[in-house]
Amino acid sequence: MPSSSRSLTSLDPGRLRLPEKPALEGLEARWAPLWEETGVYRFDRTRPRSDVYSIDTPPPTVSGSLHVGHVFSFTHTDLIARFQRMRGKAVFYPMGWDDNGLPTERRVQNYYGVRCDPSLPYDPSFVPPSTPAKQPISVSRPNFIELCNRLTAEDEKAFERLWKTLGLSVDWALTYATISKRAQHVSQLAFLKLVKKPLARPFGNVVSRAYQLEAPTLWDVDFKTAVAQAELEDREMPGAYHRIRFSRVGGEGAVEIETTRPELIPACVALVAHPDDVRYQGLFDKYFETPLFRTLIRVRSHPLADPEKGSGIAMVCTFGDTTDVTWWRELTLPVRAIMQPNGTLGPIAWDSGVWDSLDPTGAQRHYETLVGLSAVKARTRIVEMLRENGALIGEPRPITHPVKFFEKGDRPLEIITSRQWFIRAVDIKHELIARGREIEWHPPFMRTRYEDWVNGLNGDWCISRQRFFGVPFPVWYPLDETGRTVYETPILAEDDQLPMDPSTEVPKGYRAGQRGQPGGFIGDPDVMDTWATSSLTPQIVCGWADDPDLFAKTFPMQLRPQAHDIIRTWLFTTVLRSHLEEDKTPWAHAAISGWVLDPDRKKMSKSKGNVVTPLALLEEHGSDGVRYWAASGRPGTDTTFDPGQMKVGRRLAIKVLNASKFALGAASPQGPIVAPVDRAMIRSLSHLVEEATAAFEAYDYARALQRTESFFWKFCDDYLELVKGRRYGEQGADGAGSANAALTAALSVLLRLFAPFLPFVTEEVWSWWQNGSIHVAAWPVVSELDSLLGESGDATSTTGTGEVTIAAPSISGTGDPRAGLPASAGTGESDQAIYEWATDVLFEVRKQRSEAKQPLKVFITKVIVKVDTEKSELMSLVDADLRSALRVRAFETTVGAPGEPREILVAGYEPAVPVVQS
RNA sequence: GGGCGGUUAGCUCAGUGGUAGAGCACCGGCUUUACACGCCGGCUGUCACAGGUUCGAAUCCUGUACCGCCCACCA
Description:
The protein is of the alpha/beta class. The chain is built from 25 helices and 32 strands. The radius of gyration is 37 Å and the shape is elongated.
């Protein structure tokens, strides 16, 4: 899509505009708005699918500010996007905001000092206090959502400013928010399709892909919501083993169990030991009673019981941990639930049949002292009672053990029976593994994490959350004549009602007045897990629900970039949804970025207080400098936060400015590239183009940068010095013409190779002498350099549109263009040798001058060079350039015997101030 | 307990069968008509350890140690 019809490597002197003193300052403010105005990053949806490169951008969570880790990983994606765009792809690069979910809710609560109380009516005149009150103000759900929308809108503006300053080449017309009507529509529609769509299971029965079930669920007692397996994390917590005696019913004897949660004794439903454990084999199916409450329980056998742990016999409660759930299910045990959703022990009628106590009155008396206490307080209390009662053997032994937490929660998870919606996953593990193998992972070993996670799934995905700010389930339930909710026959919303909220909308066939009435209906009160929406980012952004043409062009997508910590959540759930909804793999590539570590090798995070404000970094080092640091982090590799690297990047950007100013500063005359050194440099540049392109194609942007940078510094320090004198005319117009043509060509290629990394400085320099944006200029190819050397079969470059590049602009031209210049050695290999030889001589002479501590203004009278035959020929080709660059009056070349080591020897220096001969 | 990465110069990291590298830092020199935000040069290594394969190993294999991460049914 190059806008110009002329060569990208030639110079139009009339177009050239060089600044007096080029500088980095202000480039972000200058170019970011211009890119937006001119739409250089707009997705062109008229292009065929084969030309499209679509990116499933991670929507950052809108719950505060972006941090340096975001800058790091989003830069990586931008590098790929810019490369693909320059290669001629129509890049589909959207930006999303994840403003749907708990983090946003929590931020809104703290920011405004409010709490959501769904029972309150909407107050249209509510205004939050300017500073949050100490006591949170209760507001209605609509008021709360208004505040969520208000705060996220402000945050998103700030995010967009940062991304634009960083130079992300996002098409800002493709912005989406996970709480938007459009995302809600996709989310609800996809959910309903799963509910209606059958799935054949291994044993032949057919079930729906999303279903609801009343079952033990992981539960956070502070947020008062169900959470999913993927949102769990372990934390090392202090605890204690309590050894407790359970007496045999109707006879002598007792067993001792060990537990860290004695407060769950009232919820005990069995004891369990390993079937092979000889200590307990005689006790299987025998009755015991719980201490204090005297509930009848039996000893059961199950292979999960570990004879090595504790006393080898465990108490099963409903529910202490996920193993309890397994035992409860597989041994068909009763439910004796005591934990309430708020994390306190609830009231129990001990004379009801469920508890099966030998002494209901005594049990009731003991239990009353626990009702309303949290787990921790109840534990203290029950230990006192057990001690008095004599059931506690010895004293509790303190330990540290891992406890499951909701990753955003503050108290250990409980397992509470509740009705939740699930998406099926466990039955299709092998299909999900197969999907993972269709994706090309960068780096490849990240696929293992995905497979480990899928293989370790122990339940379907719970997607319902008992929260407020999220996508509601588009579902109602009928109420029967007694007012009981009939969960078995949910009323699904019609597609044309979406997006909707069942707490305000009325199902077809009902009247609003029937809400909550016997014989009427009631809306599902829950919202979806934030991942239930995020897992549909491809569907949301590609127009699955409302733009089939766009969807066909962009889905499946080419790239999912993301960090490795959310493989088990975002990546996994996206694959799952795409598989269940579309029967497709959502992307061809997954590029997994690492973390930013602080110098102590810990992940940088807010809680550790070591987060640096990204905007300040961009201001201090320049966006190009920060991008340089980010680009040095290879895919999947954690990278140390290193301002030193940003400074290096900044210096590189400054060098680009100055070298460009030099290359373009005296760029006439232009002539055919005939000088051996020039041809050698161009040849070497061809190799760089090949290498950088191959690296980028393999998603190894870091290597592409490193090779380009390394070439560029040598180009500046060696090549520019070698041709400096000649380009100013020391060897005549043709020598200058060759140097200038090579300089402008090399500059053009190098700028384009740098453009993905340093978008601001390369665009700035490009604007001095080229038309259009460098970011839609063609990525350099070897053939355009071949044609400059007059060596390609056809003198055309392979640009995106196949435009013709004129091989050698002839501006100079008096007679034979090669007159007065040494003849080039011709082939590519020889060209390379010339360049290497010249830089070897540069190095040797510089070293000797440095050791002799002679300033550069002092001329070297003579350098004696002893070489083999081949090198002596090379010497004659570069003699003049070397004399000029090194300030050497003469080289004396002698040919040594075969096998004799090469020698380069500075023979002497002229006086610093030459004596004027009379 | 299982798995995945890593261990190379003081620091940050490249290098995946053929003479150990870059940048930063450090030391010395240099105002050189692009750049002192610059240039030229110098110093710096049991390539974690132990075996093995090989003519040859930082690189391949086996094991060990340490660091990080992921997972696990943690009574």
